[in-house]
Write the structure tokens for this entry.
Amino acid sequence: MWRTLVTISKTGAKVNFASNQIRCMSSGLLLNEPKYEFLKELGIQDENHGVFDGTWKGSGEVVTSLCPANGQPIARVRTGTLEDYEACLKAAEEAWQVWADVPAPHRGEIVRQIGEELRNYLVPLGKLVSLEMGKIVPEGVGEVQEYVDICDYAVGLSRMFAGKVIPSERPGHALMENWNPLGVIGIITAFNFPVAVYGWNSAIAMACGNTMIWKGAPTTPLTSVAITKCVAQVLEKNSLPGAISALCQGGTDIGEKLASDPRIKLVSFTGSTEVGKKVAMKVQERFGKHLLELGGNNALIVNEDADLDMVVRSAVFACVGTAGQRCTTLRRLILHESIYDEVLERLKKAYGSIMTRLGDPLDDGTLYGPLHSQQSVKNYQTTIKDAVSAGGKIEFGGNVLNGNYVEPTIVTGLTHNAGVVHRETFAPIVYILKCSSLDEGIAVNNEVEQGLSSSIFTTDLGNVFQWLGPKGSDCGIVNVNIPTSGAEIGGAFGGEKATGGGRESGSDAWKQYMRRSTCTINYTKELPLAQVIKFE
């Protein structure tokens, strides 16, 4: 039995939930319904093991993955315990003994094959991301494609790890810089990008010669299982240990163990600044390495000379894409006072058109889906209430529609330093702020604790280089005439300040997955000391 929900939002938009096919009465799993046949292509069963160390297992709690769009159970996963974690760790250490001896270009070939395996399942994996996370299918497929792309990148990287030969001041000596893998690393990922962030880490880490234990987000366990199945298939085909890429789904205890375990040489953590700070402290206590990708209170400055058509299109994608649940989502739109009213009105009109494209993320034509969970909805409601209490005006949205669906929201009337403006909320809420000069806009951009992504729209070359320069944006991603979201894999991804300082993906981010040694080689029978020191 199905029912259709049609809601008239307070902004006047008619929102049709018919395509969500929300069930009134069902005790079954979505896995067994015809619409979700793609899950079986990925090997997903009613109940799945959530631990892989070369063998699929799991002796912990059974969790049910829920679809954010309709609240229905998709399938179940048996998670891991600390004993399962220990088994993964030991297997990963043993696997490293094999993997580290494989020449880097040959490791790159294995990563290339992983990319090919992901290509073979690109659409069903993308649909799984859409079903379990809540983003629309094009974004889900794009996320898997990002993993494919970073595999391609890692193949080339495997032949290009750049050490150095440095001139020695001592006769008959060679001075070199050498890079080697760390060993076993831990990867903890978040719900909003359950594939891509793991891909950024694992493809590069594998090419560098590390083995991994992955703890995926608790609310997207099926995606973690499906991705690990693809990787395991390639490893098995090449007669390599499966624990090169281990998985241990679980709760806080698994994450805490990864952070505190000295056998884990690097912990890559993606999540909130609050939790990331705790992870960093735990890792630092044991002098381990950490790579943090945390919050982002991202801003876009619109100068008076900007192309406003481009501004509106970019702002809508950056604010509303993934229902505001990207770490690079636009949270603060800083408009020059001369174009403030025009941009605001055009943005409200564009938001209205987005509301006609709200629906089931799996359906063709949907542009805007649900928030990931009821907790996300509660956070949205709290922030709207706080914004209004602080003097904000809701220009568009501000309402919960049904289930996990909320209206994308535009807020004006708040000062740039209002507490709610400085607090990142993982939801589609943007604050429209006003500035009278570029200098003022840059100051507002830089005043929040996070420093992930930023952008400016201008046609003035002087403004561009001011923005890129030492007194410009203090973020890790500094864009010009493009949105704050949508980073390419070729550049290093990450941010400054409370965003954590970590860098993943391209450029020289590979260095975080390796240890550097400075090597001095004496090829003579003499023993000259540096700095011409005499010790005779």
The longest helix spans residues 137-157. Confidence is low (pLDDT under 50) at residues 1-8, 18-27.
